[in-house]
Amino acid sequence: DGQVGLKAVFGGAVAGEVLDGQGDGALLQAVLAVVIASHQLPGDACGDFVLKEVSSILKSYASECKAFAARWGGEEFLFVIPDADISAGKNCGETIIQSVSQHKFKHNDSVFFVTMTFGVCEGQPDDIVDKIISHADARLYMGKHNGKNQVVYTD
To answer: Is the pTM of this model over 0.90?
Structure first.
């Protein structure tokens, strides 16, 4: 999404290669996290600022984890880690949460903190992508309703 500075990698050939395992170097598995960022300050300008800051943090971790990240809509992002298992997704999510929770967000005259919640799901090459995303999304909302700022990787 150009607005937040992340390359959307899920719409074309890359989606097939990463999530379906059909491209060169087909994947054995991929871990998918649906992420939501929450902040307490009102206003669209502040929300856009938070999305850009969080995108920057996700982009740096995506590079470090050899993962792909894209805005999924609203305050949600998709984060795909090829050739990883569920514990790698959990560990990556926990590292990102720690980084975001320690980051001081400064907008205009306000300083505030942001929470993040991850829903993580492991997928295999033959899995249907929409089902993997739905499963990760359900876990995300479990975490969001149980206190936020956590990684949910089991049901």
So the answer is: no
| DSSP summary character for residue 5 | T
**pLDDT reported for residue 27:** 31
CA 53/CA 51 separation, integer angstroms: 6
pLDDT at 22 over 50: no
Single-letter amino acid, residue 48: D
Burial label for 85, CB within 10 Å (0-12, 13-18, 19+), is middle
| Other C-beta atoms lying within 10 Å of the C-beta of residue 12 | 9
Pairing of strands 105-107, 110-112: antiparallel
- Of 91, 112, 88, 89, give the one whose Cα is nearest residue 101: 112
Find tokens 């050939």 and name the residue.
13
β-pair partners for 112: 105
